[in-house]
Amino acid sequence: MTTSMTSTESAKTTDDSAPRMPTKAYAPASIRWRTMVTIAWRMMFHSKLKMFGTLIGVVFAVILSNQQAGTFLGLIKKNTMFVEYCGADMWIVSPSTLTLQPTKPMGISSLYTARSTKGVAWAEPLLFAGASIQLPAGGSEPIQFVGTAAPRYAGGPWNVVGGSKASLERPNTMVFEDSERERLGGLNIGSVREVNGFKIQVGAITWGLLPFGPSFAFAEYELARRMLKIDADQTHFVLIGLEPGADPEAVKAAIMARAPEVKVVGRQEFRSLIISFLLKRSPIGITFGSSTVFALIVGFVIVSLSMFSAVVDNIREFGTLKAIGATNGDLARIVVTQSITFALMGSLIGLAVITRLAAVIRSPKLAIQLPPEMLIGTTLVMVGMCVAASSLAVLRLRKVEPGMVFR
Amino acid sequence: MSFVHSASIPVVEAREVVKDYGEGPTTFRALKGVNFHADRGEFVILSGPSGSGKTTLISILGCVLKATSGTVRVLDDVISDVAESELPKLRLAYVGFIFQGHNLIMSMTAQENVAIMLALRGWNATDAAKEAARLLSLVEIGDKLKSLPGDLSGGQRQRVSIARCIAGNPPIVLADEPTASLDAQTGQLVTELLHNLAKKRGHTVVTVTHDNRIFHFADRIVHIEDGQITQEKDSHS
Lengths: 407, 237
Ligand SMILES: Nc1ncnc2c1ncn2[C@@H]1O[C@H](COP(=O)(O)OP(=O)(O)OP(=O)(O)O)[C@@H](O)[C@H]1O
Ligand SMILES: [Mg+2]
Hints:
The complex is a heterodimer of chains A (about 400) and B (about 240).
Chain A: H1 29-46, H2 48-85, E1 90-93, E2 106-107, H3 109-115, E3 120-134, E4 140-148, E5 160-163, E6 173-177, E7 192-195, E8 198-206, E9 216-220, H4 221-228, E10 234-235, E11 237-242, H5 248-258, E12 263-266, H6 267-281, H7 284-313, H8 315-323, H9 328-361, H10 372-389, H11 391-398
Parallel strand pairs in A: 4-9, 6-8
Antiparallel strand pairs in A: 1-11, 1-12, 2-10, 3-4, 3-11, 5-8, 6-9, 7-8
Helix pairs in contact in A: 1-9, 2-6, 2-7, 2-9, 2-10, 7-10, 7-11, 9-10, 9-11
Chain B: E1 12-21, E2 28-38, E3 43-47, H1 54-61, E4 69-74, E5 77-78, H2 87-94, E6 95-98, H3 110-120, H4 125-138, H5 154-166, E7 172-176, H6 184-201, E8 204-208, E9 220-225, E10 228-234
Parallel strand pairs in B: 3-8, 3-9, 6-7, 7-8
Antiparallel strand pairs in B: 1-2, 1-4, 4-5, 9-10
Helix pairs in contact in B: 3-4, 3-5, 4-5, 5-6
Magnesium ion binds near residues 54, 55 and 176 of chain B.
C-alpha cells in the first residue's frame, strides 16, 4: 500500500510525488470529450425518474411525428395506388387534368394516334368514373368505377384473391374489393347487384385496392362504356406501354405533335401531379404537416425544459467542475451528450413502438407507411431537435460562476 | 524534480489587492489593499469574521476571481495580468480546491471523482484511475474506491475531496472552511491531513477557518477584518 499521511506515521515519511513545477499541459479534446461524456451519462442515469420523464417526451414526439408523417405517406400511396399498379408507362389525359379523378371524356382518336406511334408497344383506353351500387337492404353506396380493356387489363384489376380477372369477359360481370364487401351489402362471388341501373354479377374479388375515396370496382371496357353511357368515339384516359428501349420523351413529343388536343404524361410525372394536387388543393398537407410540427414542438419543449431543470438541479456540481478547471465548452459537451443520448434512446424506443403499432393496425383502410428513410430522417431530426433544445441549458451554464461553490 | 523556488520567494503573493463587487453606486469594496504571501510547504490559516473577505481573497489567489486592482503572482505567472478566459487553465496548472461542502459529483464514485481532476489535467483514463486509487489510499479510504459520495460519511467525503484536490499535484491547495460541516474529531483529522500536505508533500496550503481548535496546526495565522489584514502571527512563537 502507498504511504499514508496521518500522524501515526513518522514525520519523516515523504511521498514520492511532491508537487512539481506545473506543466501547463491542458487536456486534449479527446480526453475532455471522454471525461465529459462519462460525467454526462452518470448524471443522467443518476436521477432515473427525471431521465424517464425526458425520455417519455422524446418517445412521444417520435411516435406522434412518425404516425402523422406515416399516415400522410399512406394517403399519398392510396392516391397514387392506381398509377403505381397500372402497367402503363405513359398516360394520355385531357389537357386540364391535374390529378387522377373522374373527368369529362375526350375524343378517342389519340388512342389510334398512339398505337401508330413508333416506340409504342400497346395502347388501351380506360374509363374512370364515379358510379353507385344498389344495396340489397335499400339505399346505395358510391364506387370508383373502372372500365378496363380485355385481354391486356392494363387498367386492372390487380391482386385478385377470389375468382379470376378473366371472369370480366363474361357478360354483365364485375370485380369488387374485398375490404369493402360488407359496406357494399355483403358482396360475394356470384352475388347479383345493380350498378348504375344495370344488373351485374360479381366475378372476382381483389384485395387492398382501396384508394382514399370509394373502392375500385372493375368492368370490361365495353360493358363499362354502356353502363356509363359513353359514346364509342370517346374515352377518359389512354394507357400506353412502351417498347423496350424506346425513348419516352421522343414518344411523348411524337404523340403530342399529332394529337395537340391532349396531354401525355409519364408514369412518374402523373404521380407527381397527383401528389402536388393533394398537397396544394386539399387540407391533407396542412393537417398532417401541422400535427407533425406540433409533435416536434412538444418534444422540443419537453426536452428543453428537462435539460434546463437538470442543469439547475445539478448547478452546484457544474459550478464545482468549473472551479476545478472545466471550461464552458466542457460543460456544453456534457449537456450536448445528454441531449444526443436522449434523442437516440427516445428514437429507438419510439420507433420500436411505432413500427409494432403500424404492423398491428395495417389494413387496406389504414396503412401507415414507414419507409426506412423516414425512420432515419426522424431520428436525425430528433438529434437536431434535442441539441437545439439543450441550448437554453448551455446558456445557463455559461452564467455559472465558479466562485459560487465557495458560498 | 521539486520546485526550483527557494523559500524566500513565495509561491503565491498578493500586493495591494483591491476587489470591488458590483458597479456604480452599489459597488462594494470587499478587499481594501491586501498584502499576502505563502511559501512552499507552508500551512497558513486565514481567519476573520463573517463577511470580512476571506473567500474573496482565496478566490483571487486561486484564479477564480480577478482582482479589481493590485498584483497577484503565482510562481512565475502574474495572474492579475491574465485575461478572464485564461483563468481555468491557471487553476488547472496551479490550484487544488477543497470546499466547505465536499462538492463531489454525487453520481460518480470516489475514484471517478478524483480521476476527473486528473483527466482535466491531461491524464489518460488508465493512468488517471490508477493514480486516483493511489491517492485515495493515501488519505486512507482506499477501500471506498467504488462508493458513491452518498454512501460515505462527511469525513470520508472530505477525504475524497482532499484526494481530488491534490490529484495531479498542484503547488497550491486552497481550502474554504473545510471542517465546518464536520464534527470536532473528524475536523481535527482532516486538518491534520491538510497540514501533512504542506509538511510531507510540500504543497502551499491556505485554509480559511473560524475554528480556533485547529489554529495550532498553522505555521502562520492571518487575520482579516473588513477587507483588510489586521494581524499576522506565527502560531508557533
Ligand atoms: N458576488 C458578490 N457580489 C457582491 N458582494 C459580494 C459578492 N461576494 C461577496 N460579496 C460581499 O463581499 C464581502 C466579503 O465576502 P466574502 O465571501 O469574501 O466573506 P467571508 O469572509 O468569506 O465571509 P464568510 O465567513 O461568511 O464566508 C461580504 O460583505 C459579501 O457580502
Ligand atoms: Mg466565506
